[in-house]
C-alpha cells in the first residue's frame, strides 16, 4: 500500500504536468501533501516536513542557483557566449565545424540554459554551415547535443545543483563538476558522431539561403568582450570550488587553507563569478545592473521554487514509512554496487520522457532516491557525485514533443518534426545511454 501511495504521488505529478499542464511547483506541493496524508502522517507533521524540506534545501543551494543563473544571463546579453564561440572555432578550425559547434555548446551550456544558448547561437550556426558547405541539420544537431551534454551533468547548471542538494551532496560540488566534465566528454562525442553520421543525411528546406555571413552575425551583436573576460565568469568559480575540494580532501589546515576553503565554498565561488562577470557589462547603469540582473533573478525564481518544492516532496517521503521501504529495498541483494545507479537512471528517464523537463526530472528523482542512499552504503563525494550523474543521464533521455528544447531546436533549425525525431530525439536517447554506461564504469573504477 505504501509503494502504491508513492507510485500514485509520482503518477499524479507526471499526469498533472504532462496532461493538464499544471506547473511542476504546484504538482510537487500537492503530491507532497497527498503522499504525507495518505501515508498516515499527522497533519501537523505533514506541514512541518514540507516547510523544513523547502527551507532546508534553499539554505544550502538557493544563492548558488541565483548566482549561476545571473552569470548565464550576463554571458548571454553581453555577447560573451559569441566570443567563446569564436575562440573555440579558432582552436578547432573551420574544417571541423560540427566539432566546433559541439564544443561551443558544451562550454556555453555550463552556465546558460540550453534553450537560450541555442537561440543565441542559431544565426552563427547557420552562417558557419553555409560557409563550410556542410548540411545545416548536421550543424544544428552538433550544437543541440553539445549544449545538452553539460546541461544535466555539470554545475553550476541549476538541475545538477538541485539534485546534489536533495541527496545531501551540496558540499561536494567540486567533485561533481570534475566527474560531470569527465562524463560529458563521451556524451558530447556520441552527439557529434550522430550529427555527422545521421543528421548530415537530412536536408532542410531553404538551408542554402544564408541571411547573414559569419562576420555580419558577430558585427550585428556589437563590440564583443575579450576572450579573457568572456571565459573568466565560468572558469573562476569552477577553479575555486576545485581548489576547495582538494584542500578539504587532503585535510590541510592553517590560515591560508581556511581562506581557500572559504573562497571554494559554492556560495562564495559563484558570487565571485557574478562579480567577475561585471566587466562584461557594456555600461554600469540601470539597464544592466538592474535590468540584466533582474532578468537573471526572474529565470532563477522558477528554478528556486521547483527545487524547493522538490525538497518538500523529498522531506515528506523521508518522514513517512515509505522511506523505510525504499531503504529495505536498497539494502536487499536485488541490486548492488554500480547496478543500483540504474534505479535513479530509470526513474529520471521515465519522468523526463513523460513530462518533458530535465530540471523537473532531476529534482523529483533526487528527492525520491535520497532516502535509500545511506542505507545502500552510498556516502561520500565520489559515490554521491556518480548518483547525480545517473540522475542526469536519465534526465537526458529523451527530448521529444513535450520538451520545450525540442521545439527550440526544430524552430530555429528548420527541421521537420519527423526529421527531428530521427536526428534530435534519438541523439538524446543515445546520449543518455552513454552517460549511464560511463557513470557505471566510473563506479567500478573509483568506488
UniProtKB/TrEMBL annotation:
Any Pfam family matching the protein: GntP_permease
Keyword Transmembrane helix: yes
Positions of transmembrane segments: 28-47, 54-75, 99-120, 132-151, 171-195, 234-253, 259-284, 296-317, 329-351, 380-402, 423-446
One term of GO molecular function: gluconate transmembrane transporter activity
Domain of life: Bacteria
Sorted UniProt keywords: Membrane, Transmembrane, Transmembrane helix
Gene Ontology CC annotations of this record: plasma membrane
Name this polypeptide is given: GntP family permease
Species of origin: Pontibacter diazotrophicus
Amino acid at each position: 500500500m505504501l509503494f502504491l501511495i508513492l507510485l500514485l504521488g509520482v503518477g499524479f505529478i507526471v499526469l498533472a504536468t504532462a496532461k493538464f499542464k499544471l506547473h511542476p511547483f504546484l504538482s510537487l506541493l500537492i503530491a507532497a501533501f497527498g503522499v504525507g496524508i495518505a501515508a498516515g502522517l499527522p497533519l501537523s507533521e505533514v506541514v512541518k516536513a514540507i516547510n523544513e524540506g523547502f527551507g532546508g534545501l534553499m539554505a544550502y543551494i538557493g544563492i548558488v542557483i541565483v548566482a549561476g543563473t545571473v552569470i548565464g544571463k550576463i554571458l548571454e546579453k553581453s555577447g560573451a557566449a559569441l566570443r567563446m564561440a569564436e575562440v573555440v572555432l579558432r582552436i578547432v578550425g573551420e574544417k571541423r565545424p560540427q566539432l566546433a559547434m559541439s564544443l561551443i555548446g558544451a562550454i556555453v551550456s555550463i552556465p546558460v540554459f540550453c534553450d537560450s544558448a541555442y537561440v543565441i547561437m542559431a544565426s552563427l550556426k547557420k552562417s558557419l554551415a553555409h560557409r563550410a558547405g556542410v548540411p545545416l541539420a548536421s550543424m544544428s544537431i552538433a550544437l543541440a547535443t553539445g549544449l545538452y551534454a553539460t546541461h544535466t551533468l555539470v554545475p553550476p547548471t541549476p538541475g545538477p545543483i538541485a539534485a546534489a542538494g536533495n541527496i545531501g551532496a551540496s558540499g561536494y560540488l567540486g567533485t561533481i563538476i570534475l566527474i560531470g566534465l569527465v562524463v560529458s566528454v563521451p556524451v558530447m562525442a556520441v552527439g557529434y558522431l550522430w550529427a555527422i553520421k545521421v543528421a548530415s543525411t537530412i536536408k532542410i528546406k531553404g538551408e542554402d539561403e544564408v541571411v547573414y555571413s559569419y562576420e555580419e552575425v558577430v558585427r550585428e551583436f556589437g563590440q564583443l568582450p575579450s576572450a579573457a573576460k568572456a571565459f573568466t565568469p565560468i572558469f573562476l568559480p569552477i577553479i575555486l570550488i576545485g581548489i576547495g575540494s582538494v584542500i578539504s580532501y587532503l585535510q590541510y589546515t592553517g590560515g591560508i587553507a581556511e581562506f581557500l576553503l572559504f573562497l571554494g565554498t559554492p556560495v562564495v565561488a559563484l558570487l565571485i563569478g557574478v562579480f567577475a562577470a561585471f566587466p562584461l557589462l557594456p555600461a554600469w547603469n540601470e539597464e544592466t545592473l538592474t535590468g540584466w540582473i533582474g532578468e537573471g533573478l526572474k529565470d532563477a525564481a522558477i528554478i528556486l521554487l521547483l527545487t524547493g518544492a522538490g525538497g518538500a516532496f523529498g522531506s515528506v517521503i523521508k518522514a513517512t514509512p515509505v522511506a523505510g521501504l525504499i531503504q529495505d529495498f536498497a539494502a536487499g541483494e536485488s541490486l548492488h554496487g554500480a547496478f543500483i545507479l540504474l534505479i535513479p537512471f530509470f526513474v529520471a528517464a521515465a519522468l523526463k520522457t513523460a513530462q518533458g523537463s530535465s530540471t523537473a526530472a532531476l529534482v523529483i528523482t533526487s528527492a525520491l532516491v535520497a532516502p535509500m542512499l545511506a542505507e545502500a552504503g552510498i556516502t561520500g563525494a565520489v559515490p554521491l557525485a556518480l548518483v547525480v550523474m545517473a540522475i542526469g543521464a536519465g534526465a537526458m533521455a529523451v527530448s521529444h514533443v513535450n520538451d520545450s528544447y525540442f521545439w527550440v531546436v526544430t524552430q530555429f533549425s528548420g527541421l521537420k518534426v519527423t526529421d527531428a525525431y530521427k536526428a534530435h530525439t534519438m541523439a538524446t536517447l543515445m546520449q543518455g545511454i552513454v552517460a549511464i554506461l560511463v557513470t557505471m564504469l566510473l563506479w567500478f573504477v573509483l568506488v
